[in-house]
Amino acid sequence: MDKIIRLWNMYSMTFLKGLGGTLWLSALTVFFGTLLGMLVALLHMGKSKILRGIADIYIEILRGTPILLQLYFFWIGLPKLVPFELTDTQCILTALIVNASAYISEIIRAGINAVDKGQWEAARSIGLTETHVMTRVILPQAVKNILPALCNEFISTVKGTSLASVFFVGELMTSQRTVQSATFLALESLTIVGIIYFVLNFVLSKLLVLLERRLTISD
Q1: What is the distance between the alpha carbons of residues 96 and 159, in angstroms, rounded to a whole number?
Q2: Domains and CATH numbers, the chain
Q3: Could you give the dihedral angle defined by the CA atoms of residues 124, 126, 130 and 131, in that order, rounded to the nearest 10 degrees?
Q4: Structure pTM?
Q5: What is the pLDDT along the chain (219 residues), one digit of tens a residue?
């Protein structure tokens, strides 16, 4: 325990910097993953069989392969596919966003499908277009179904970003590897990171419970 305390006193800023990187990666992943996931969900729910098929293949591939494999694929392959230079962080962030979008699209689709079908019929009966029905009637009601699951996805993403340390992206596990290399105290630095992850996810989980209660009361 003394070693852990001394290690924290010496390298607390390194760990906190890594924590900031983890939160930054997670926030960007969920934000852009939600935008991309919304597009995929709408394609999956559309009338075109071709677009539905593309969306279905997209989701199945991303959900059916390991995220670490996807990170390697984007890290190696993405710079070769685009005509401009990308950093390792940009490649890994893109991979995390694409991976998250597959799961978020299913969350959004389930939230939309949970809205009573009568809402569609009532909105169309008063002359609203499909776009207006979706944006003004369905989505505002679906948000209550989507938001708790989306917050839970953020918690999962916080833990999932630890895989980015394989590519030395600036997040919490990368900080641990930096401290371990400087001190050769692997177990102690891992313990500190484990405590940080636990406290962070514990707080986020409690906030999620409060959010769900607020949404339930508002119903």
Answers
A1: 12
A2: 2-218 (1.10.3720.10)
A3: -150
A4: 0.89
A5: 888 888 998 999 999 999 999 999 999 999 999 999 999 998 888 888 899 999 999 999 999 999 999 999 999 999 988 888 889 999 999 999 999 999 999 999 888 888 777 777 777 777 777 777 777 777 777 788 888 888 888 999 998 888 888 888 888 899 999 999 988 888 999 999 999 999 999 999 988 888 878 777 655
Q: Under 8 Å CB-to-CB from 197, ≥6 apart: which residues? A: 158, 159, 162, 172
129 three-state secondary structure: coil
Cβ atoms < 10 Å from Cβ of 196:
19
**Looking at residue 114, what DSSP letter applies?**
T
Cα dist from 162 to 121, 179, 185, 202, whole Å = 45, 15, 19, 17
CB 148 within 8 A of CB 215: yes
